[in-house]
Amino acid sequence: MSLVKKISEQDFQKEVLSQSVPVVVDFWAEWCGPCRSLAPVLEDVATEMGTGARVVKVNVDENPNIAQHYEIRGIPTMIFFKNGEAQKTLVGLQSKEEIKKSLQELS
Fold first, then answer.
1. I need a surface site. Which of 7, 17, 30, 93 has the fewest CB within 10 A?
2. What is the value of pTM for the model shown?
C-alpha cells in the first residue's frame, strides 16, 4: 500500500492545510516523465519520515484550480506546507535527501 496519498481539490483543506505535521504536496501529471521518476523517491521519503511528515500528490490535469491557485508553472513542483502555510517550493526532479531536508527544516 502506498504511503503517498493522491488527493483532490476537495481534500486539500483536510489533507494539507489542517495538518499539524509538515506536508509536501507533489503537483504532477500522468504524462510527465520526471514526475514518474519522482514517485518512488516520494514513497521512500514517506516511509522514512513516518508520522513526522505527510506526502501527498495532486494531479494538475484533474485539479486545475488548485494548481492555478499555487501558480504551478512546471511539473513536478513540490510545495512544502507547515501549519497550513506554504513555506518552500522545489521545482523539478529532486533527490530524496533534498526532500527530506526540506521537510525536516519545517519540523
1. 30
2. 0.96
Core vs surface per residue 57-95: b (16+ CB within 10 A) or e: bbbbeebeebbeebebeebbbbbbbbeeeeeeebeeebe
Q: Where are the domains of the chain?
A: 5-106
Q: Are 103 and 53 in contact (CB under 8 A)?
A: yes
Percent of the chain's residues with pLDDT above 90: 97
Q: Which residues are catalytic?
A: 32, 35
Query: What element of type H or E holds 106?
Result: helix 96-106
Which of 58, 85, 53 is CA-nearest to residue 72? 58
Domain 5-106 listed as CATH 2.60.40.10: no
Q: pLDDT-based confidence at 107, cuts 50/70/90? A: confident
